[in-house]
Specification:
Blueprint: H1 6-19, H2 28-41, H3 43-54
Helix pairs in contact: 1-3, 2-3
């Protein structure tokens, strides 16, 4: 499992990325596209966050 220092930094990176497209006025279809593009363009961060959320060691 990633170290405790890695997870907060990964979370910060994701929140920074998400801030660029997460707007309450954005239609759901467009928002899903933004999330998909952000995840597929660099899946390492999504994998790390998912792995951290599983509770596996």
């Amino acid at each position: 499992m990633p170290s405790n220092a890695v997870m907060p930094r990964a979370r910060e990176l994701w929140l920074d990325r998400e801030a660029g497209f997460n707007d309450p006025e954005t239609p759901l279809e467009e928002l899903v596209g933004h999330y998909l593009h952000a995840t597929l363009s660099d899946p390492r961060l999504a994998r790390l966050l998912l792995w951290g959320g599983t509770g596996r060691t």
